[in-house]
Each structure stands twice: as structure tokens, then as C-alpha cells.
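INFO  loader      accepted 1 record
INFO  loader      residues=214
INFO  predictor   begin
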Amino acid sequence: MKKILLFLVCLVCLALGQEQENSEPTKVLHVSTIPSYADIYINQLHPNHVKNPQATSPEFITVTSENSQDNEILISLFKPEFADTTIRVKLSAKDTSYLIVSLRPNYDKTIQEEQEKIVKKRHNRNFGKKMIFGSFIPFAVSAISGGITYYQINKANDAKKKMENSPLADVKKINEIQKEFEQHRDNADIGKTFVNVGISLGASLLAVGVILQF
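INFO  predictor   done
INFO  writer      dumping C-alpha cells
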């Protein structure tokens, strides 16, 4: 038993050693801008600024073989009222490289208006996604209410059958069943209301969310 455990420990140590040898050294690029809070798009020559950026300055960016090539990484910066900037950064031999960019102000009103439209459209898209996900809540409430409504309708039907099969002379029992029937019927009506409201609200949120994506 001890020999088996020792053998397993050796295998684990060997696997960990090979993993460390095969893993590439992690490099980081620190991107900062003047002014701060510029959108950072990585490895995109002509990024679609309507889409959310991968990061916002200042930020540490992990450099991988997927977003870099030949020890270089492409950084595109976007900030309203400033000129778009794209820089191909040559990484240093150290683990951490630093990039500080002073953004050039843009005084062209036409370009500024276009940038504002881009930011507004991005916000609309993000808000639309939230509305699409939010629509699942009223749909879920509607589905649960539908199940409850179905259950209450069946109970009301059972109570109705009991009344029809009860002796007419047993007035007390008939009144009890009548109350039970009315209670289940009222609960079913409330459930139907929740179903209709849930479907309407969910469909409205979904429709508006989809519209905001365009």
C-alpha cells in the first residue's frame, strides 16, 4: 500500500513539474492614459467602439499568445472628445511593461457628435441586454402562476363534482363544499391575472431589449 501511495505521489510531482516547464511565462502590460478612463481594445486594428471594450485605463493587461505576436501587442484607445489612438507596443524582456499615452484632444464637432452617438448606442445595447435577461423573471412568474392556476382549476372542478354528488339534505356539507369551490375559483382567477401580466410584461421587456440591440 505504501509503495502504491509513493508511486502516485511521484506521478503527481512529475506532472506538476512538466506543467510548469510547458507553461509560458506570464507577462503584463500596464496601460495608463492622460486623461484616464479611456476604453482599451486589444489586438483590434479597427475596433467597433459600439461593443464593450476589454478594459478601461488604467489597467493591467495579461499578455498571452492569443492577443500578442512576436512579443508585440496592439492597443487601441477610445475616449469621447479625444482622437482615436492605436499603438503597437513592443514588450520589454521584463515581466511587466508600461505604456503611458497622452491622448490628443479632438476639437472637430462632427467627430465629437459621432463619438457621443457611439457611446449612447453602446449604453442602449447594454441596457437592452439587461432588459432581455430581465424579461425571464416575469416569464418565470407567469409559468409558475400558470401551474398554480391549473391546480386551482382542477381543485375547483373537484369541489363542483362533490356538490353535484352530495345529498341535497346535507345543507351544511354543501355549503362547505361551496366555499371550497369559490376559494379555488378565486385563486384560479388571481393566477390567470398573474399569467397575463407576466406574459405582457415579459414580452414588452423582451421586445424593447431586442430593439435596443440595433
